[in-house]
């Protein structure tokens, strides 16, 4: 299939990870899950944050290997499945495991699951990640509401022929929905969950940053740093979805502590904080209409 402009000019072959692929994958998911009802909320669970998926009721687990166009998710801490079911009365599709650009994937693949969940009906995306603290005052175990992002991946899943139904030049003045953030803040306050707020900077990885890079990121306005989330947010915004982003701070970034950063430490902290993230997300779902 070629992408054509409304005037009929061919723009090149459709991406194997674009809108057409998403419709095909969504069809397969619907068939496997045996549900026709539209999904309302899409959820992406970061490294070690998959426990939320266990709370989903009437859950249908669809391994990535059963979804056309999805390779198996490869990183430790990522189970690699889409879970369709109900959470706090909402119909949800949750992604346990995600694709990262540092794995060598096409940037478009990193956002394909968002396109699929949108094709299943989701108009709201809740995206979580593990992140290092750049701003002093943030500590391992903190949850941080993402109020904005800086894309230093130097990649975007939106490059290439325009996808049908997506904004070609999406506005980025407020990628993280103000109303959803207000709800999350209220939930956190009522539940006694400490909740920081700040700007997430996405880098390509997979190496962690140097101390000099972290000094630079701090001067650029980053509060936390990680290797995901921004591709998903960009596509969600191009599709007109509302986005709520939450970082789980797993470590002090390089240079802010003498100890080296390890993936094992990241997973250990997300495992510990997962329960609080779960309460925050479930409480927020309970107040979304
Ligand atoms: N840097 C980049 N990505 C991360 C970090 C970090 O310090 N911690 C968890 N993900």
List the helices and strands and how they pair.
Elements: E1 2-4, E2 10-13, H1 19-33, E3 41-45, H2 51-54, E4 57-63, E5 81-87, E6 90-96, H3 107-119, E7 124-133, E8 143-152, H4 178-191, E9 195-203, H5 211-220, E10 224-226, H6 230-238, E11 242-252, H7 263-287
Parallel strand pairs: 3-6, 3-7, 7-11, 8-9, 9-10
Antiparallel strand pairs: 1-2, 4-5, 5-6, 7-10, 8-11
Helix pairs in contact: 1-3, 3-6, 4-7
This protein binds hypoxanthine.
Hypoxanthine binds near residues 130, 132, 208 and 266.
Structural features:
289 residues, alpha/beta, 5-stranded mixed barrel, 11 strands, 31% helix
Tally of separate helices: 7
The mean pLDDT is 90
**What sequence of helices (H) and strands (E) makes up the elements?**
EEHEHEEEHEEHEHEHEH
| N-to-C CA distance | 38 Å
What would the principal axes of the Cα set say about the shape?
Answer: globular
Strand share of the residues?
25-35%
Bound molecules: hypoxanthine
| Count of beta strands | 11
What is the rounded Rg?
18 Å
Side by side, the strands of the main sheet go: 7-10-9-8-11
**Main pleated sheet:** 5 strands, mixed, barrel
Class inferred from helices and paired strands = alpha/beta
Low-pLDDT windows of residues: none
Task: Give an overview in words.
By secondary structure, the protein is an alpha/beta fold. The protein has helices spanning 19-33, 51-54, 107-119, 178-191, 211-220, 230-238, 263-287; strands at residues 2-4, 10-13, 41-45, 57-63, 81-87, 90-96, 124-133, 143-152, 195-203, 224-226, 242-252. The strands form two sheets. A five-stranded mixed β-barrel has the order 7-10-9-8-11. It starts with a strand and ends with a helix. The structure holds hypoxanthine. Hypoxanthine is lined by residues 130-132, 208-209, 225-227, 250-251, 253, 261, 266.
